């Protein structure tokens, strides 16, 4: 669920402007999972543009408090959301922790880095939601550490059915600054893509794991 329509449209336009999101239906990308995709999203690029990262930080901060109340701690999902999560925590004057995909193999073998007490209310920051699996592993780790996870907020989601189901099963509310639906709407309006390309992108989103196009592919990791 998006925080609001205006934020969703503006965020989508900013991500397209700096090529954090690339749309290429005629020459699709190959994701690390092996999926063929006409879209690629790398929201870490936003950290290199101060006005945009500040906009994202401030939109997160004001909307988090509206939806979840002011938490005790902000948690970022490693590695993509460490930077923006820390900016949000700093702006809100809150402690920050980040969550690894799995515990370290050495030292204290931490999965959660930073100071977290049992019973603290935590909001999790993520940069991108695809299936939601890796994001929800972070939620599971926080819950196992005794945290009260109030919800998760992400910059962007593809809105796949599988992710919606995964968050429902985990009983976690997810809010995003923008999503796939608003991205396509904005991309057509601003002529980043044609209406025909928009239809291709809509078809892909319904079955991304099986979608394929006979063309040379740009491989990304």
TrEMBL record:
Keywords: Glycosyltransferase, Magnesium, Membrane, Pyrimidine biosynthesis, Transferase, Transmembrane, Transmembrane helix
Biological process according to GO: 'de novo' UMP biosynthetic process; pyrimidine nucleobase biosynthetic process
Reactions catalysed, as given in the entry: orotidine 5'-phosphate + diphosphate = orotate + 5-phospho-alpha-D-ribose 1-diphosphate
Phosphoribosyltransferase domain ranges (all copies): 60-156
Co-factor requirement: Mg(2+)
Top-rank EC class of the record's enzyme: transferase
Annotated metabolic or biological route of this protein: Pyrimidine metabolism; UMP biosynthesis via de novo pathway; UMP from orotate: step 1/2
Pfam families, A to Z: Pribosyltran
InterPro entries according to UniProt: OPRT, Or_phspho_trans_dom, PRTase-like, PRTase_dom
Residues spanning the membrane: 73-99
EC number, as in UniProt: 2.4.2.10
GO MF annotation list: magnesium ion binding; orotate phosphoribosyltransferase activity
Residues annotated as binding orotate: 130
Binding site for 5-phospho-alpha-D-ribose 1-diphosphate: 100, 104, 106, 126-134
Recorded family membership: Belongs to the purine/pyrimidine phosphoribosyltransferase family. PyrE subfamily.
Functional note: Catalyzes the transfer of a ribosyl phosphate group from 5-phosphoribose 1-diphosphate to orotate, leading to the formation of orotidine monophosphate (OMP).
Self-association and partners: Homodimer.
The name this protein goes by in its record: Orotate phosphoribosyltransferase
Organism: Flavobacterium microcysteis
